[in-house]
């Protein structure tokens, strides 16, 4: 481990430790051990068994936690991912480790065929990747990593090298993925949105003819209980969609599945704010990124806000209608500083009401409507609580003045992370561990919550309007 791992860095004007002993606490030590076990030398795997490669938004969240252990390793995490960027600007959702056997994970590199099927889109020749993307958390992560040790970041030219790649990534999304024509980004596969098996996808997925079960082998079932994972029918549809996109040379355009998702677009807006801060740090002028982020927020309100539901909903671009399912994705825009005050208040009421139960029936926000017909407290993204979405909501609550609720959510996350063995996700009622334990972003975001004071304001994430904000 490099020398920067020996301390918890303190950016100017910010107190790092939430508790005097946080860096030496048992929870800190255990979380750090999870990240150490997943470190490959250039990046961190989410789970050695179930997810043995580098995942895009996992690495962004992991870097946010790693910055408290080793800013250099956090920078390296993001640099490894950005090095696999395609010429058209997309950052692939998986960067494959060539030393891992092909049958360890499906879909494997021989399914995606990035270097051949993705040649026209500019897939790299020296590394194998998938051809789809994941939510754009990367600029936000890069800015927070920079703040953890600005001196090291400037000495290495970290932001100087990352900025053009991040700008190209945002450009790809904004210019190639506005499939609905309303100023929002569309995802073309449920895996791109990151909440793979959400009931929000059931309606648009029903148009997709599933690939035959005999045509693929699900390696995920070797590491998790089948009742916690997507069904074979769902997986068959995922495979069919991915194969069709691959066979079109990863060309973007209206297909069988195109959805405008609130969380994906909210995270793009948050990362636009962060990219603005990076540009100002580098002395880059004329980017108008704050205005772009505000326009994304306005488009979210115009196209995805549903007053009757009290939250944002996904839009099925092909059908031209909102999808009447309440998923945690529709709460994530609470993160945005330009969100109208009345909408923010409504989101908080919805989060704490009967559909999500925060502070009442649940300690962590579930991934799907507790009252929904498709709710399942254990099945992947169909009800369990996840740590990355709750981390985002904790910041959103704090941003909009809900300090008491944010403190309670933070306390619940820390307790649940430790008690569950840093589970991939948990039953929202009982906090029973589901999926795999020792999960990368659960450990990383635990570290971040341990080190950042609740009254934070200048760390670039929860700052108020006019301060350093993402």
UniProtKB/TrEMBL annotation:
- Which parts of this chain are annotated as the region Disordered? 1-22
Q: Which InterPro entries match?
A: 6-hairpin_glycosidase_sf, 6hp_glycosidase-like_sf, Glycoside_hydrolase_63, MGH1-like_GH
UniProt cross-references to SUPFAM superfamilies, sorted A to Z: Six-hairpin glycosidases
Keyword terms, alphabetized: Glycosidase, Hydrolase
Q: Which residues cross the membrane?
A: none
Positions of the Mannosylglycerate hydrolase MGH1-like glycoside hydrolase domain = 51-442
Write one Pfam family the protein is assigned to.
Answer: MGH1-like_GH
Family under the similarity heading: Belongs to the glycosyl hydrolase 63 family.
What is the protein's name according to its record? Mannosylglycerate hydrolase MGH1-like glycoside hydrolase domain-containing protein
- The species is Streptomyces massasporeus
């Amino acid at each position: 481990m490099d020398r920067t791992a020996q301390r918890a860095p303190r950016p100017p004007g910010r107190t790092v430790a939430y508790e005097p002993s946080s860096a030496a606490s048992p929870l800190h030590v255990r979380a750090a051990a999870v990240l150490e076990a997943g470190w490959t030398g250039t990046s961190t795997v989410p789970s050695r068994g179930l997810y043995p490669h580098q995942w895009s938004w996992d690495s962004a969240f992991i870097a946010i936690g790693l910055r408290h252990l080793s800013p250099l390793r956090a920078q390296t995490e993001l640099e490894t991912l950005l090095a696999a960027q395609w010429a058209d600007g997309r950052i692939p959702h998986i960067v494959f480790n060539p030393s891992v056997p092909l049958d360890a994970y499906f879909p494997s590199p021989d399914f995606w065929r990035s270097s051949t099927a993705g040649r026209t889109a500019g897939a790299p020749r020296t590394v194998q990747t998938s051809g789809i993307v994941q939510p754009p958390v990367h600029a936000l992560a890069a800015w927070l990593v920079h703040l953890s040790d600005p001196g090291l970041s400037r000495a290495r030219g970290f932001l100087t090298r990352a900025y053009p790649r991040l700008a190209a990534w945002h450009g790809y999304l904004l210019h190639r993925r506005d499939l609905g024509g309303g100023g929002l980004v569309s995802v073309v596969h449920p895996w791109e949105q990151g909440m793979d098996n959400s009931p929000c996808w059931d309606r648009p997925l029903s148009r997709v003819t599933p690939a035959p079960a005999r045509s693929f082998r699900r390696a995920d079932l070797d590491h998790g209980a089948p009742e916690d994972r997507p069904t074979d029918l769902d997986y068959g549809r995922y495979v069919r969609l991915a194969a069709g996109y691959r066979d079109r040379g990863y060309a973007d355009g209206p297909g069988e599945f195109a959805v405008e998702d609130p969380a994906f677009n909210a995270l793009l807006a948050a990362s636009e704010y962060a990219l603005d801060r990076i540009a100002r740090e580098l002395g880059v002028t004329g980017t108008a990124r704050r205005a772009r982020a505000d326009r994304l927020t306005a488009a979210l309100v115009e196209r995805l806000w549903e007053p009757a539901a009290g939250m944002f909903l996904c839009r099925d671009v092909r059908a031209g209608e909102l999808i009447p399912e309440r998923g945690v994705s529709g709460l994530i825009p609470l993160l945005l500083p330009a969100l109208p005050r009345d909408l923010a208040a409504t989101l908080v009421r919805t989060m704490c009401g009967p559909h999500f139960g925060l502070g009442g029936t649940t300690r962590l926000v579930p991934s799907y409507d507790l009252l929904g017909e498709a709710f399942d407290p254990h099945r992947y993204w169909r009800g369990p609580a996840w740590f990355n979405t709750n981390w985002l909501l904790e910041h959103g609550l704090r941003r909009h003045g809900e300090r008491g609720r944010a403190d309670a959510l933070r306390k619940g996350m820390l307790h649940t992370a430790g008690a569950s063995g840093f589970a991939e996700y948990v039953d929202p009622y009982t906090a029973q561990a589901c999926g795999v334990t020792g999960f990368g972003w659960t450990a990383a975001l635990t570290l971040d919550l341990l080190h950042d004071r609740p009254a934070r304001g200048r760390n670039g994430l929860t700052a108020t309007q006019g301060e350093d904000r993402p």
